[in-house]
Design goal:
heterodimer; A: about 425 residues; alpha/beta; D-Maltodextrin-Binding Protein, domain 2; 17 helices; B: about 300 residues; mainly alpha; MetI-like fold; two-stranded antiparallel sheet
Chain lengths: ~425, ~300
């Protein structure tokens, strides 16, 4: 009896002490940097944040890049750090490792949300950097997760297209938080042999009559940010909603977009999370039409035998991503990260990335390599830079790049827009 | 005999512990109970506590203030109820199907097969457990896909277009396959324990095959079936990978994963995670009543 009560007491003490001690320690990064973010949300678009910029407590900008630390841990979008395994011609990791001695370790993120969570792991010390899209970059900046960058240390910075040198998604109050990498759109991919005639509009997936014809063969990107694609469709097809920015939606606009997706749900075959999923599904014809990144189109066409797919930019336009290489404010290998950022905007690497992924490079000097006969590798395209509108600012402006929806609409509507936490809740409802 | 010098410190410690059994027991058990209490139960306690916190919408930081808003959201939105009901129904269906498939296999293994065949069958039943979970699920994805082996097989018999692809049916099939060994083995163990003399006695008293099965075998093997069902039910209830890979349906685990990983809304994920904990608590209570733990 005494033994039992002793054991019981021990168990209770262990339980209580562990619960109490863990409750006392603050939860990871978001809570500890709460003071820094309290000022940030007042500003919607990053350009208007207060002058006390939410930079982390740290040294001022470095004046030179020191010796490499021997290792680099980065979070990337699939295809952003090729080492020749997929296609021998596309390899920019091994030359980097040889030149700098920084061994590159990568982790592919499936969505911006995943990347933000990963960057905050271990108080920001696990990963040195990330290729952040616009819907992750401003959140990382506002939370102090990424460090300001001294662009003078990046030799090719001055060669980057002017509209990408200080864009609002990575430059806040004149402070640079990263180097632009490239940009592109979420186009509509389809199986040329299984979906005829070729689609020209997002109505092929959103209009219920058209979608019903291909029930179970449609695919959507599995992320709450996809609600913006529905809003973009409604911007063209329901002008009475007066949608101007698919990421800043008032309640009625948001409800309409959510309803469109709920109506579409019975016809969707798969909400793709990983690009490999989508590649598998299109290869065996399980899905025949849906939103994609050009990387999948290239990979499918490059398979042996090539899968019969093609992509279109629908008439309503498309959402897209403008990616930036950012460095963690607690990076363990900052010199290697700086070297990587400098490496990634050199013309040679930009040309390889642009061709292999199928995106517009930030540095137009890459066009000399992209436009020459035969391009750089197997995914070469004639007149690449014209086809990808590399220096065309008006085309760039026409894409609705991913950005984090916030309550502040950023215009005359004031604070009436729906913020991202509601988007994520509604996304669960949409999938059902 | 050598003169009695003072025994070594170690010997004195041994003797002291021998006299105070309680302390000896305490020292032996502290490491494992400590690990269990602090790491396992402690983390569950934190989970329970964090379900009452909430995410500040302005800063996306977790506010350590007690509030019931997570539970209010769970109760007000239909989708969470739908997902929970779907998860429980699929778990129940998988359990029933697995019992139906496992019983004949286990009966043959336990009561009919010769000992060589029985050993071989044990190995064959256990073999899939050596393969990685993901490998098995991806293999089934290929089998069930359009143009896959299943469609080909049915095509041989003249039935075209049988490819579940991404659907709830595929999900159920994959779950049934994954957890089958966990159902076969307890039932086989339970059946083996039934003495042959009881069945002979039943036959002597006039019980035919089905009557003996219904009145004698089933009640005796029910605890083992309950024990096996704990595995299939709980493993299906908590799974989130298979629904993601072979269907477009959401399970409780998917919502928890998306809330935690995607939205960083850990308190809400914790609140929703309490639902399967409560369900499993009830299930285990029922299984205990059915005698599942006596079969161990």
């Amino acid at each position: 009896m005494r033994t039992r009560s002793l054991l019981g007491a021990m168990a209770v003490v262990g339980l209580v002490s562990s619960a109490c001690s863990s409750a006392a320690t603050p939860s990871p990064a978001p809570a500890t940097s709460a003071p820094a973010t309290a000022s940030a949300p007042a500003s919607a678009s990053a350009a208007t944040s207060p002058s006390a910029s939410p930079s982390p407590a740290g040294p001022s900008l470095p004046t030179s890049i020191g010796a490499g630390e021997g290792e680099l841990d980065i979070i990337i979008w699939a295809g952003y750090a090729e080492d020749g395994t997929n296609q021998k011609a596309y390899d920019w990791v091994k030359p980097f490792e040889a030149a700098t001695g920084c061994k590159v370790k990568t982790k592919e993120g499936n969505s911006s949300d995943e990347m933000v969570t990963l960057m905050r792991q271990g108080g920001g010390t696990v990963w040195d950097g990330v290729s952040a899209s616009g819907d992750a970059s401003n959140r990382l900046i506002a939370n102090g997760d990424v460090a300001p960058i001294n662009v003078d240390l990046i030799p090719d910075y001055k060669n980057i297209a002017p509209f990408l040198q200080s864009p609002p998604h990575n430059t806040v109050n004149g402070v640079h938080y990263g180097i632009s990498h490239g940009w592109g759109g979420n186009s509509l991919m389809y199986r040329t042999d299984l979906f005829t005639p070729a689609p020209t509009s997002w109505a092929s997936v959103f209009d219920t009559t058209q979608a019903a014809a291909y029930k179970g063969k449609i695919t959507d990107y599995d992320s709450p940010i996809y609600i913006a694609d529905a809003a973009l469709y409604l911007k063209a097809h329901k002008p009475e909603l007066a949608i101007t920015d698919p990421y800043e939606l008032t309640q009625p606009q948001f409800d309409a977009a959510v309803q469109l997706l709920k109506d579409q749900q019975p016809f969707v075959g798969k909400y793709w999370v990983s690009y490999t999923d989508q590649i598998d599904n299109f290869t065996n014809g399980t899905t025949t039409i849906g939103t994609t990144w050009p990387y999948q189109v290239n990979t499918l066409k490059g398979q042996t035998p090539p899968v019969k797919v093609d992509q279109v930019v629908p008439s309503e336009g498309m959402t897209g991503w403008a990616d930036t290489w950012m460095m963690s404010s607690h990076a363990k290998h900052p010199n290697c990260m700086y070297k990587w950022m400098a490496w990634m905007v050199t013309p040679g690497v930009q040309a390889q990335v642009a061709e292999s992924f199928g995106e517009s490079p930030a540095n137009p000097q890459a066009c000399d390599l992209l436009d020459k006969a035969g391009g750089v590798g197997p995914y070469a395209l004639a007149n690449f830079c014209t086809a990808y509108h590399v220096t065309d600012k008006s085309y760039y402006d026409a894409i609705s790049f991913w950005k984090t929806p916030q309550a502040d609409c950023g215009d005359s509507r004031g604070q009436t827009c729906i913020d991202y936490s509601v988007w994520t809740q509604k996304w669960t409802e949409i999938k059902g | 005999m050598t003169s009695q010098s003072r025994p070594s410190a170690f010997r004195r410690l041994q003797a002291a512990l021998w006299r105070r059994r309680a302390i000896q027991l305490l020292l032996l058990i502290t490491p494992s109970l400590g690990w269990f209490g602090v790491v396992y139960l402690g983390s569950l306690a934190i989970l329970l506590l964090s379900a009452f916190w909430f995410l500040d919408p302005a800063t996306s930081a977790i506010r350590h203030d007690l509030s019931l808003q997570n539970f209010q959201l769970l109760a007000s939105q239909d989708v969470y109820r739908t997902v929970a009901v779907r998860t429980v129904l699929v778990a129940g269906l998988v359990t029933i199907v697995d019992i139906a498939i496992a019983f004949p296999i286990a009966y043959y293994m336990a009561r009919i097969a010769s000992s060589r065949i029985r050993s071989l069958m044990f190995v064959l039943v256990l073999l899939p457990l050596w393969a990685s979970y993901l490998v098995k699920v991806y293999a089934w994805r290929v089998i069930l896909a359009q143009g896959g082996p299943l469609e080909w097989l049915f095509g041989l018999f003249g039935v075209p277009g049988v490819s579940p692809g991404f659907s709830d049916l595929s999900m159920v099939i994959v779950f049934c396959y994954l957890w089958l060994p966990y159902m076969v083995l307890p039932i086989a163990a339970g059946l083996e324990r039934i003495p042959g003399s009881i069945l002979e006695a039943s036959a002597d008293l006039g019980g035919r095959g089905w009557l003996t099965f219904r009145r004698i075998v089933l009640p005796l093997v029910l605890p083992s079936v309950a024990a096996g069902s704990i595995f299939t039910f709980s493993l299906t209830l908590g799974d989130y990978i298979t629904p993601k890979l072979v269907s477009k349906s959401q399970f409780i685990g998917n919502v928890v994963f998306d809330s935690q990983g995607v939205a960083n809304n850990v308190p809400f994920a914790a609140a929703y995670a309490l639902v399967p904990i409560a369900i499993m608590g009830l299930y285990l209570f029922g299984a205990r009543r059915a005698g599942a733990f006596e079969a161990l």
